What we know:
By secondary structure, this protein is an alpha+beta fold. It has helices at residues 9-28, 34-60, 167-184, 186-190, 278-286, and strands at residues 70-72, 78-83, 104-108, 142-144, 149-155, 193-199, 202-207, 221-222, 227-230, 242-247, 257-258, 260-262, 273-276, 293-294. Strand 6 and strand 7 form a beta hairpin. The longest helix is centred in the first third of the chain and has 27 residues, at 34-60.
Amino acid sequence: xxxxxxxxxxxxxxxxxxxxxxxxxxxxxxxxxxxxxxxxxxxxxxxxxxxxxxxxxxxxxxxxxxxxxxxxxxxxxxxxxxxxxxxxxxxxxxxxxxxxxxxxxxxxxxxxxxxxxxxxxxxxxxxxxxxxxxxxxxxxxxxxxxxxxxxxxxxxxxxxxxxxxxxxxxxxxxxxxxxxxxxxxxxxxxxxxxxxxxxxxxxxxxxxxxxxxxxxxxxxxxxxxxxxxxxxxxxxxxxxxxxxxxxxxxxxxxxxxxxxxxxxxxxxxxxxxxxxxxxxxxxxxxxxxxxxxxx
Length: 295
């Protein structure tokens, strides 16, 4: 595997933000119309943010032929639906940044016969603007190790904010929260998270975990099917869900995406509902030598 550590993306971002602030301070001291001292600094900052995003995307873009899909266990049990799936397009989230070329989002669906609502709360144009996390069946759902692995990173403490799946909520998430989180760093984008070393140069990242739910710490070893956290709504997230992907480095600013397939499920397409039986996952956890290998 080639080493790509010349100038980390986060460092480039810090330099560009500092440059923007210095230019903005200089422009505000110039004589001239008032609009120049307000609009010009904003334009400079916007241009530098666009430049940084471009640098990130180029740094994370795949090189050569993609690796064969790595077969791992599903990270959840129960009934779920897929969103932003690499089965429909690559990169699945419209960017290669943070190694998420083959990332997938999944949301929990109510089980049949539960007696609750027939579907999870969906998108609303105007009202309610935000919803409590308890309204979503994914919130608090167990997240499971996809393979025997070593914990590289276990980050907790960020709050689980209200949902952002109304029109105004999404606008706020994309234009305000998203940009601020990107400037601060990748850890604020993915929220509470766990990164596992699956071996053979493959790492799995679980994003948006519930605050206080992590059951592991860096250096721990886990077995496939073992609970490592619970699903939450931390970071750059519109509603409680799991964002998960494989990558070739534990450094989100330097990683490139790795294709995956879930044993017994495959790669669910956008809108596809799939069910993982808990009993099957218990068998997977007990299976000796379950590791993530090329499949």
